[in-house]
Amino acid sequence: MVIATIANQITRAAAEVTDTLTSPFADPVIRLGVTGLSRAGKTVFITSLVANLMDRGRMPQLAAAANGSIQTAYLQPQPDDTIPRFAYETHLGCLTAPEPKWPESTNRISELRLSLRVQPSGLLSGLSGPRTVHIDIVDYPGEWLLDLALLDQSYEEWSAAALARAADRPGGDAYLQLCKVSDANASLDEPTALQLAEVFTTHLNESRAAGFSDCTPGRFMLPGELAGSPVLTFAPLPGSGFSRKSLGREFERRFESYKRNIVRPFFRDHFAKIDRQIVLVDVLGAIHAGPAALDDLRGTMAGILSAFRPGRNAFLTRIFQGRRVEKILFAATKADHLHHSQHPQLTAITEALLREARDRADFAGAKTTAMSIASLRTTVEDTVDHDGKQLDVVRGRLLDTGKQAAFYPGKLPDDPAHLLSPARSGAEKWLDADYSVMRFAPAPLTLRPRDGPPHIRLDKAVQFLLGDRL
């Protein structure tokens, strides 16, 4: 045993020396994490990102594309054979078909490698030839990221917070009523445990559908192959100090197992290796859902920023080993649902949410920013007469009926505080405005050679995330 341990240490040391010597000559790799909260359009973002980096005619704000430094782009086999490949070709086929449709959303981690052949610019341009930069896109559900907060919580602490949230959210009353008739100190009964977990999961799914972002544990809503397993068969219960072999004691054990076997491996094996991160956020959807949903989004963004501050958590400090994510972009999606005259307001609201989240998380580290984007533009802009006034609208094909319609979601305030203040104070609804959302279908595309799908500020987002490395 001792000899094997020494041999392993020597092998690791030799590997580290080899990596140190060869890394300056290896092709640079950027690991870009992509996640999204509650139908923010993660799959469409990645598909449009890759398509527009391969055909860069619509990327003028990406400096390396505008000045011709990127000579070519191509897909390669991903480096990790154990992670599913992001189905880029299938998703692009859905968006570019004669009758386009939205691709199915992904509910598991996936990866894709895009390689760019780049000619260095500036002082080095005449001294070296083109180099290859690999972009490893790591796609994972936003619900998994929110589970980080569980690592710092005991079962008792998590239960208290979850039960408090349930009181004001869809499906919460049904679960709280079930809790009242369930004895946490009674002997473990699997049918009772399963019923509690199922009703609690229904509550989480209904809350997410209503626009709430902070719905944990995340794997309850995306169980995959773990559906029905004991590690997903627990729920919050009031009280503490449960008796041996009781329902409460077993739920407490399964909660710790969830953290140990689900949450920690994800952060250790995937999250800790990310260099740049984009978080897609449906800010318009949260505004439409009301003040409570917008305030929940603010708290959720703070929780996400905490995930990128490893110093606060001993486990994260160990897995990061001195590495830090360098840039984080919070992108408000569906900017094409607004006339461009309202894009500054949407960006300002997102920036204000980020600013408050940064303060709330006491965040200092990676460079962060916010912007409003549309990964795939589905509408065109128009101006219509309404009650004798000119109204700026967008037109698109409705997802539910297939009919063309003009849409005006309501006027966003110039001052974000007009939304954030009532959200913080617990207002039940907006007092002086009503904000609507519409579900648009993708429009048929006729792409010119060297043009990717139409978008709004995707090139600006890529410039922030990757521009300095290209």
Brief characterization of the structure:
The protein is an alpha/beta fold and 470 residues long. 39% of the residues lie in helices and 15% in strands.
What features would you describe in this structure?
The chain is of the alpha/beta class and about 475 residues long. The protein is built from 15 helices and ten strands. It has two domains: about 30-140 and about 275-375 and about 445-470, 3-Layer(aba) Sandwich (Rossmann fold), CATH 3.40.50; about 145-265, no CATH class. A hairpin with a 2-residue loop joins strand 8 and strand 9 (about 390-395). The chain is globular and about 70 Å long.
List keywords for this structure.
single chain, 470 residues, alpha/beta, Rossmann fold, 2 domains, seven-stranded mixed beta sheet, three-stranded antiparallel beta sheet, 10 strands, disordered N terminus, YcjX family protein, YcjX-like
CATH architecture of the largest domain: 3-Layer(aba) Sandwich
N-to-C span: 47 Å
Specify the structural class.
alpha/beta
Largest sheet: number of strands, sense, barrel closure: 7 strands, mixed
Spell the H/E element sequence. Answer: HEHHEHEEHHHHHEHHHEHEEEEHH
Kindly state the number of beta strands. 10
The backbone outline, from C-alpha atoms, is: globular
- CATH C-level name of the largest domain: Alpha Beta
* CATH topology heading of the largest domain: Rossmann fold
Widest beta sheet: strand line-up: 2-3-4-1-5-6-7
Helix content: 25-40%
Residue stretches low in confidence (pLDDT < 50, at least 5 long) are 1-24
Total of helices: 15
Strand content is 15-25%
- Mean pLDDT equals 87
| Total domain units | 2
